[in-house]
Design a protein that fits this description.
The structure is a single chain. This protein is mostly beta strands. The protein is built from one helix and eleven strands, in the order E-E-E-E-H-E-E-E-E-E-E-E. The strands form two sheets. Strands 2, 4, 5, 6, 9, 10 and 11 form a seven-stranded mixed sheet that branches. It is globular, with a radius of gyration of 14 Å. The model has no long low-confidence stretch (mean pLDDT 92).
Length: 133
């Protein structure tokens, strides 16, 4: 059973940085390099409204890095350490609007990235990020 565990969230002031980690396990016969891994987020007030999680970016061996969230361009960087089965989301110049629960996700039915939450079967529990002075 594939499991994802996020970490690295916390409270940061506007303009600050955080690096989120997503550690994957349970790939039988495969490694993280064989699957796409995406980051999503959901602001607390939107979770109560049952709004779908917002896609940020995805990394895969076949797509490279795809950025879906326009406001992340130039501020967020996605990278992967295959040996450690870990995907990182480096977030710089954080803004209050970045406050959300951040989730990583992967899927086994396709080797390519997808931009929608429903395309992913495996999710971590999320790590909270709060950007506030």
């Amino acid at each position: 059973q594939v499991q994802l565990v996020e970490s690295g969230g916390g409270l940061v002031q506007p303009g600050g940085s955080l690096r989120l980690s997503c550690v994957a396990s349970g790939f039988t016969g495969f490694t993280l390099d064989d699957y796409p891994v995406a980051w999503f987020r959901l602001a607390p007030e939107k979770e109560r409204e049952s709004i779908e999680r917002e896609s940020i970016a995805c990394i895969s061996k076949f797509d490279g890095v795809l950025t879906y969230l326009e406001s992340a361009t130039g501020r967020f960087t996605l990278s992967r350490d295959v040996a450690e089965n870990t995907v990182y989301l480096q977030m710089n110049n954080l803004e209050p609007d970045d406050t959300a629960i951040y989730y990583c996700a992967t899927r086994s039915r396709s080797r390519y990235c997808g931009s929608a939450a429903f395309q992913y079967s495996y999710w971590g529990q999320g790590t909270p990020v709060t950007v506030s002075a």
